[in-house]
Design a protein that fits this description.
By secondary structure, the chain is of the alpha/beta class. Helix content is about 35%, strand content about 20%. The protein has one domain: Vaccinia Virus protein VP39 (Rossmann fold, 3-Layer(aba) Sandwich). α6 links the parallel β6 and β7. Bound molecules: S-adenosylmethionine. The site of S-adenosylmethionine has 20 residues, from α3.
Amino acid sequence: MQEKQQVHLRSDIMNQSFLDNFERVSKDVEKLGKTINWVPTKNYTDVVTKNKTKGVIYAWQVSRSTAEFLRFLVVSTSSKTILELGTSIGYSGMWFGLGAKETKGHVYSIEVFKPKIKLAKEHIVSAGLEKQITIFEEDIFSALKKFKKKIDFVFIDAKKEDYHKYYEQVFPKLRLGGIIVADNITNYKKYMTKFLDTVKNDNRIISYPLQIDNGLLLIKKIRN
Ligand SMILES: C[S@@+](CC[C@H](N)C(=O)[O-])C[C@H]1O[C@@H](n2cnc3c(N)ncnc32)[C@H](O)[C@@H]1O
């Protein structure tokens, strides 16, 4: 019989009731991510037109296996300053928050769409991770201009056509040895050719395209 897959969490840092609660909230957000939708209001001028399909807006969150892998990466690289571009309703953010709890780090996640921000905050509080996660409620480009900390880990998961611009803006802020992970390099490859070309021709990094779920591009900064 196949052994049930288990996330190996640090029980020395998190007690069982915290972990049980995290698991429960995580499962709820996984379900919600598949069903949630809003009808855009009259004033709704979302920067993310791709996120709008026939008047319905989806959470577009990563799957459980990607979330678990991201948390593992954060913990195994001892990343403390974690930046997420695209919070949505907080699912990947919760898993980064779990990683940050283990590394004694902090997650800064950026989201511009208010209804999602409201839900993300609720989920983060329910998971008991409000001390680990800060949401910047604004456009990624303006938030990045103000962000002065040296970053250990970046997760790019916002507008696919803008990945190359995000990359340019975050790279100088990433510490040497720091990691960038970009989501959707398989299913939305056609929207990010500029980004993929930039990475391919960048000798300041090493990269690896990991074919799990929607495809993750793993990048490590080896030169300034
Ligand atoms: C794919 S979803 C993020 C999913 C989330 N990382 C998860 O897995 O739970 C992308 C999010 O990026 C946000 N977004 C896109 N462009 C943005 C921008 N320029 N500034 C802020 N948020 C943006 C969208 O509103 C959307 O909620």
